[in-house]
Amino acid sequence: MTKLRSVSALVFVMACTESPDLDSELLAQDLGGTTGVVINEFTAGTSGKVELDTGGDTATDLSGWQVDDISGGYAPKSLPAGTTLAPGAYLVVGYAGVNHASVDQVRLLDNTGAVRDVQSNFYAGTSILGACFGRQPDGGAWATAALVCSFGG
Prior knowledge:
Strand order of the largest sheet: 1-8-3-2-11-12
Strand content: 25-35%
Largest sheet: 6 strands, mixed
Shape: globular
Distance between the termini: 13 Å
Order of helices and strands: EHEEEEEEEEEEE
């Protein structure tokens, strides 16, 4: 059975970053959000992408929400006004701020700056460039190893 998803907005935001080492315990956090919007998949590096997913049953206004790496790292990238994520929909954000060659994280911040979801970049001593990390099934628990990206599929 194929799960049909719709795209409310497609945003491409590019940035570069260098990140200091982080506390691995902090990186293991998965805070999730009360709206049901989560980071579902991501790749790191200059052509990185972050997929946001919602399993909720109501639309979520993502105006002013941000995709970011570590706190104090590269500047977060804001989603534009009018960005709405429909129930069961996804949004792919081009974001090059997640480091592929050292410990980092990917974070989702709401329009007040509160962290709604955070995940380590899975760096373990070798580059993760080209690797995809995500939840299986969509919106579920994080897979423990790289997987094939579906970005919106």
